[in-house]
Amino acid sequence: MAKILQVCKLIVWDECTMAYKRSLEALDRTLKDLRDNKKYFWWAMILLSGDFRQTLPVIPRSTVADELNACLKSSNLWRYVKTLQLTTNKRVFLQQDETANVFVKQLLDIRNNKVAVDTLTGFITLPTDFCYITDSKEELIQRVFPDIAQQFNNHKWLGERAILAAKNKDIEDLNATIQTFLPGQLVSSKSVDTVMNQDDVLNYPTEFLNSLELPGLPPHNLQLKVGTVVIMLRNINEP
């Protein structure tokens, strides 16, 4: 990784608004050290991509002032950032989908506080044509993936639909429920849960190793059916 950072000319940082200013400053210091140069980012172009209407992860016992002071715009490096705004929705432009154009406008109105608010509950009132409210997780799955038992091998059909959730735990629960609709038996694949050095057995018991859920890696007990669509985030067995 160090060799790559030494020669790269462009670094794309997606969802940058979810990072703290110290992360940006740490990248700056890392590039300076790796390239033995004191210029900011050693002239590598850093593309910070994100929506600043999103918020940072909540800091425990933090105040609004703490949150603002932690964001990227509070960094001393922000004065070297040139802001560019995207104005064209490519899905609407390429597909000429007017319904998508209406949906985009509705989303912007919600983000910009231009929708009605219920005085009693304090909740916003969604437009009647904004979405369909489901009463259960199973109904949501049936709405998004009707006839999935017959269509799960149709990648084009799958590529036209998705369920989004705020938390990874919700996605895991949805994926597990969706798999119950697929034909076949679940196959369990468990990760290695023993240490190589027997002197570390007491420090790293099997129960502890089984409980680890590392970002970008499958869970300890990965349960799949034949034909289940998966996304490979990392190839551990690279050439």
What does this 3D model show about the protein?
With 239 residues, the protein is mainly alpha-helical. Among the domains are: 2-80, no CATH class; 88-131, no CATH class. Helices cover 35% and strands 8% of the residues. It has ten helices and four strands, in the order αβαβαααααααβαβ. The protein has helices spanning 2-7, 21-35, 64-70, 90-95, 98-111, 137-144, 148-151, 155-159, 168-180, 206-211, and strands at 10-14, 45-49, 187-190, 221-224. The chain has a two-stranded parallel sheet. The longest helix is centred in the N-terminal third of the chain and has 15 residues, at 21-35. The protein starts with a helix and ends in a 15-residue tail after the last strand. The mean pLDDT is 84.
List keywords for this structure.
239 residues; mainly alpha; two-stranded antiparallel sheet; 8% strand; globular; helicase; ATP-dependent DNA helicase; DNA_helicase_pif1-like_DEAD; DNA damage; Pif1-like_2B_dom
Topology:
Blueprint: H1 2-7, E1 10-14, H2 21-35, E2 45-49, H3 64-70, H4 90-95, H5 98-111, H6 137-144, H7 148-151, H8 155-159, H9 168-180, E3 187-190, H10 206-211, E4 221-224
Give the helix level as a range of percent.
Answer: 25-40%
Q: Write the H/E string, N to C.
A: HEHEHHHHHHHEHE
What share of residues are in beta strands?
A: 5-15%
**What kind of sheet is the major sheet?**
2 strands, parallel
Radius of gyration: 23 Å
Rough outline:
globular
Number of helices: 10
Note the gap between the termini. 16 Å
**How many strands appear in the DSSP assignment?**
4
The helix/strand class is mainly alpha
User: What is the mean predicted local confidence, pLDDT?
Assistant: 84
Q: In terms of per-residue confidence, which ranges show pLDDT below 50 for 5 or more consecutive residues?
A: none
Question: Strand order within the widest sheet?
Answer: 1-2
